[in-house]
Specification:
Beta Polymerase, domain 2; 7 strands; seven-stranded mixed β-sheet; 54% helix; alpha+beta; Methane Monooxygenase Hydroxylase, Chain G, domain 1
Length: 354
């Protein structure tokens, strides 16, 4: 069961700063992958003890330690001691309700981002926190699950594609952030497709289920917006060179991923406007359908008003009425009623009310 915000607050009451309490609900999977590389050499292995993977004394080699399983707070504490990471940073790593942010320290940069995936079954956005620490020649990543988000970066490292193995740890950090941000485009493309599918239904088949889908899409876009806005602020500082750990050569790449976040924000705002427009169209469609029904009912009632008047007259219980004793009185009245109804229908069509 997922820990609620209230339960999280209760757990932290009375605890000293820096107390590690995992606030997520993904418990079970745990592994540590250590990757060490330079332009000529690449090593990747799954380890059990973090002491088996420490930054190389050779500054040309980059080490990437990827930990999956934030529930193992004992291992995270050990990493904190080995790399001299502040206890409050470790506390933020295991608290999965952090907003995307960046914090600068003398020897490292701490970054929190969110990965987003679209769940086809529940048709909802699922987010997962990823914490990153950039050092002089190492990158530490902390995740809840192995969702495959970083696999494209690993393939580039294994196959020595591009310039990733020719650059330092700051470029590796950029590559990891870039693959997360690129995945946002995939999520937005899915949401955009759903919005397009809803447009025809809203106009021609408005229903309560359509409204539910509109509100669900609106919640999904709010989730994306909550994720991307703080990340834009964080990347703004990285590409402007607020830390010596980001080289001038790598800074343009961070500016590029920053531009991607701006583009995503613009896309989110556009989709939000489309969703709001769909809701307005739905209300208009329902109103138009109601008006059409009322128009038909009004026309029917109007046709029957004179017929009801005639029927009402001949339904009176007076003994001496001229037509009561007439042999053809009944069919004559029916013909008059039919004639009046036909004349009214012709008149309504001429006025284009039908």
């Amino acid at each position: 069961m997922k820990i609620t915000m209230k339960e999280e607050i209760i757990q932290k009451i009375g605890q000293p700063p820096g107390t590690l309490i995992y606030t997520g609900n993904r418990v079970g999977e745990f592994k540590i992958v250590c990757i060490l590389y330079d332009s000529k050499e690449y090593r990747e292995l799954e380890i059990e003890d973090v002491k088996e993977c420490l930054p190389s004394k050779d500054s040309s080699k980059v080490m990437w330690l990827d930990l999956v399983g934030l529930h193992r707070v004992d291992v995270i504490e050990k990493i904190g001691r080995l790399y001299n990471i502040h206890p409050l940073v470790l506390e933020d790593i295991v608290n999965v309700n952090q907003r995307p942010k960046v914090e600068y320290f003398d020897e490292y940069i701490f970054l929190v981002v969110k990965t987003l995936t679209y769940n086809e079954a529940s048709q909802s956005i699922e987010s997962e926190q990823v914490a990153m620490i950039l050092g002089k020649n190492f990158v530490l990543t902390f995740r809840e699950t192995e969702n495959g988000i970083f696999e494209p970066v690993r393939k580039r490292l294994r196959n020595n594609k591009g310039i990733i193995r020719k650059n330092g740890a700051d470029y590796l950090l950029y590559a990891l952030i870039d693959v997360i941000v690129d995945n946002y485009f995939v999520v937005l493309e899915t949401l955009g497709g759903e919005i397009e599918n809803l447009e025809d239904k809203v106009i021609f088949e408005p229903s309560p289920e359509t409204v539910q889908k509109i509100h669900r899409l609106k919640r999904n876009l709010i989730e994306v917006r909550k994720t991307i806005w703080p990340l834009r602020e964080a990347l703004n500082g990285l590409y402007k060179g607020d830390s010596n750990l980001i080289s001038k050569k790598t800074s343009p790449y961070f500016r590029d991923v920053y531009d991607h976040t701006v583009q995503i924000i613009e896309t989110v705002e556009t989709l939000r406007d489309m969703i709001s427009g769909l809701l307005d169209v739905y209300l208009s469609s329902i109103s138009n359908r109601t008006n059409e029904v009322m128009k038909v009912l009004t026309i029917i009632a109007t046709i029957f008003i004179p017929l009801t008047f005639i029927a009402g007259i001949y339904g009176m219980n007076f003994k001496y009425m001229p037509e009561l004793e007439w042999k053809y009185g009944y069919p004559a009245v029916l013909l008059v009623m039919l004639f009046i109804a036909v004349i009214e229908v012709i008149y309504f069509k001429k006025k284009k009310w039908l």
